[in-house]
Write a structure and sequence with these properties.
heterodimer; A: 147 residues; mainly alpha; 81% helix; 0% strand; B: Arc Repressor Mutant, subunit A; 10 helices; elongated
């Protein structure tokens, strides 16, 4: 196998990511190829050099800001309705509308029944002021109308 | 879960951001913006994937989206080969005679600053794989998960990244010697 075909494998080998078959193939090649041995050594040294580059620690204010943002998210109520499927949302909206109409109807009936009671009471009150014979009332009323 | 991410993985994420952006200030901004996006689009997170990997994916995507803002030494992602070959005439001319020098230079501890500068000059895709693999010690599976690509892509990209790094490093050493 030619060096050119093994370059990518050299890099993977340096990372410890070559399969066992690939390792056998590569090691056999490396035995007789000083150029590839040099290349492998260079890749390994490169990895070490990169690992040595200093990485700064996370600034305390950044960590605090992220934790505060996470806390804000936790304190918000879960928007579960947003996540519910469209069908569920529609059914809930429909049920709410039916309930609202029902309540309104019930209230208006309540209002009607109050006015009927009031009317009956007024009627009874009025009846007490009238003469005892209803015919007289009817006749007098009729005669008044005819006049 | 999110608190755990901050407490246990913010250092790793910050290192990734710092080396990607090349500056602490911009890394901070990138981290905060990525975190904001993570929370805002929480429903897009697939819980079968480790959260720290997903966060790095968000960060990497955001970095690529805003690349002009975060990376002043940007080399087009569309032409990674051109980026890799930048300065290659000089690098190749120096390759044979400098092979030992490069090895020796990389072994020296004082070369760290040059290594960092070379890393910063690399194309973003190369930079990202080298940071994750060589600086943070992530395996190919984790890198593939962050980059959302195959293991084969990780492997070939790392090889190309190392070649690009090698060429730029040679160029730096040459100029250091000339000066």
């Amino acid at each position: 196998m030619e060096c050119r075909e093994l370059k990518e494998l050299l890099s993977a080998y340096a990372d410890g990511q070559a399969s066992s078959e690939e390792q056998v193939l590569l090691l056999a090649h490396l035995e007789g190829c000083p150029a590839c041995r040099r290349e492998l050594k260079l890749f390994q040294t490169m990895k070490t050099a990169l690992r040595r580059v200093c990485s700064p620690a996370v600034p305390a204010d950044l960590r605090a800001a992220l934790l505060a943002q996470a806390a804000r998210r936790r304190s918000k109520p879960t928007p579960w309705l947003k996540r519910a499927p469209v069908g569920v949302g529609f059914s809930l909206a429909f049920a709410a509308a039916v309930l609202a109409i029902g309540v309104e109807q019930f209230e208006s009936r309540q209002a009607d029944s109050i006015s009927v009671d009031a009317m009956l009471a007024a009627h009874n009150e009025y009846a007490l002021t009238m003469p005892l014979c209803p015919q007289e009332l009817v006749l007098s009323d009729l005669s008044m109308r005819l006049r | 879960m999110i608190e755990k991410l901050i407490n246990e993985y913010s250092q790793q994420a910050y290192e990734f951001a710092v080396h990607l952006c090349g500056s602490a200030e911009e890394a901070k901004e990138l981290m905060q913006e990525s975190f904001f996006r993570l929370i805002r689009h929480w429903d897009q997170y697939d819980a079968s994937q480790p959260l720290e990997n997903y966060f790095m994916t968000v960060m990497r995507n955001l970095y690529y989206d805003g690349i002009k803002k975060w990376d002043r030494g940007f080399i087009s992602l569309e032409t990674p080969v051109a980026g890799e070959d930048e300065g290659s005439v000089l690098a190749d001319a120096l390759a044979d005679e400098d092979a030992e020098d490069l090895q020796t230079a990389l072994e020296r501890r004082e070369v760290s600053e040059t290594v960092r500068s070379v890393l910063e000059e690399l194309a973003p895709e190369y930079k990202a794989v080298l940071i994750m693999s060589d600086m943070q010690g992530l395996g190919y599976n984790e890198i593939a998960s962050v980059l959302d690509c195959s293991l084969g892509t990780v492997r070939s990209r790392l090889w190309r990244a190392r070649n690009a790094f090698k060429k730029k490093m040679r160029k730096h050493l040459y100029y250091l010697r000339v000066e």
